[in-house]
Amino acid sequence: MASQQKQANMLWGGRFTGGLDPLMVAYNESIYFDQVLHKQDILGSIAFARANFNAGILTKDEFDKIETGLQAVEAEWVAGTFKIVPGVDEDIHTANERRLGELIGKDVAGKLHTGRSRNEQVATDMRMWLRDELRAIEAHLVSFLKVTAQRAATEVDLLMPGYTHLQRAQPIRWSHWMMSYGLAFASDLERLREVIKRVNRSPLGCGALAGNPFGIDRAAMAQELGFDSLLWNSMGGVADRDFVAETLQWGAMLMQHISRWAEDLIVYSTAEFGFVRLADAYSTGSSLMPQKKNPDSLELLRGKSGRAFGHMAGFMMTLKGLPSTYNKDLQESVEPMLDHIKTVADSIQIAEGVLATLATQPLKMRAALDPFMLATDLADYLVRKGVPFRETHHISGECVALSEKTGTPMNELTFEQLQSVDARFDKDISEVFNYDKSVEMRSAKGGTSKASVLEQIAVLQAMLE
Ligand code: ARG
């Protein structure tokens, strides 16, 4: 009996007579997560009521009552006094309308939903919410990139080993390393700005799927709600969760960059490398080993990238194979979206904090440079004397072998030893063994010379204005 009574209260209760399995009630309801959309739901409802008033569906008096009532409902959400009725308030749309009816009477409140479907409502709410969140994320990303650019400018004179296969390869500027990720994140920023355009399109007025029969002014509603444009097909408008999928794809890529960035810094912060020291604010100790200072912030950034990818992969599977327009499967877009946005927004801010506060260890960076990292420079020296590179590569390799065989660092081989390998080495060969010179030689655009790195910083800064 009790469950039948509840049933009658539900929005679509009219044609259902039997009670729902209690687990089915819980399985179906989304109110416990979609309540975060309360503000968007209220604003969307006010815009919809206004458009119905302008279309002659509501009187001025009815519209005023609905608007004032909806504002009162929103005030309850903000104050934390809104009482969800378990088993009745299936989702945020149902809950707000139920409460509106209690505040202004069902006769007027019952007119709000004229021509409207929750299918268009949920898509509208999600798009408005996501648009605002992505704009906030854009600001976080810009801020992180400003720290990157600033730090790269300040520390442009620090040299360290550059790696391939995690083996010492060639000397680079520390700032060149920072900017290598900075420019990847800059591409993420470009992509984000693209995604926001497609998120910020209005489905309101699409109805359940076929459109609105009361001549509602969709453009006016879209404008009131801050949308840039409309979704132009009502069936597509209620079916579309590509705006969520695209956001998750975007975030998965960004987190993949953050993860690799974090991995480098984890390696660089070990005693074996010692290039950087994390601030206490972003490290934790061990409960057992008193000496430990662990890079938990960076490990979490790396770890959470898996979770971000999971949101994306899982939701793509949810979408795959859905028939046309709205299906309840689409409700599964909300939770991954919420968790993804929190994960990405927090991660960017943590990454910024880590980078802004870490201390570099310039002497350790220098000490890790090894004369073998100049073997290419040695080959290039002979190239400049007209020797074909394939030959110089071989000659330089022989010098490496001689150095290894005699246990002499390559820069300490005598002039005679070098000449025994190839007579074309002149006295000025000693100038090759200079790390600063080596990085300055790489002066073509995009290289690790000071001017090239400063130019990269300028390119990045131009994107941040
Ligand atoms: N809570 C639902 C969702 O998030 C709202 C739309 C319900 N529409 C429906 N036809 N049952 O998708």
Concise synopsis of the structure shown:
The chain is mainly α and 465 residues long. It has helices at 2-9, 22-28, 31-34, 38-54, 60-79, 92-104, 106-109, 118-154, 174-199, 218-224, 234-239, 242-268, 296-319, 334-357, 362-367, 375-383, 389-406, 415-421, 435-441, 450-464; strands at 159-164, 167-173, 201-202, 229-230, 276-277, 359-360. It folds into three domains: 2-114, Fumarase/aspartase (N-terminal domain) (Fumarase C, Chain B, domain 1, Orthogonal Bundle); 119-162 and 173-367, Fumarase C, Chain A, domain 2, CATH 1.20.200; 371-452, Ribonucleotide Reductase Protein R1, domain 1 (Orthogonal Bundle), CATH 1.10.40.30.
Q: How would you portray this structure in words?
A:
This protein is mostly helical and 465 residues long. The chain has three domains: 2-114, Orthogonal Bundle (Fumarase C, Chain B, domain 1); 119-162 and 173-367, Up-down Bundle (Fumarase C, Chain A, domain 2), CATH 1.20.200.10; 371-452, Ribonucleotide Reductase Protein R1, domain 1. The protein contains 20 helices and six strands. The strands form three sheets. It has a two-stranded antiparallel sheet with strand order 1-2. It starts with a helix and ends with a helix. 36% of the residues are buried. Arginine is lined by residues 30, 34, 91, 118-119, 122, 326, 328, 330-331, 334.
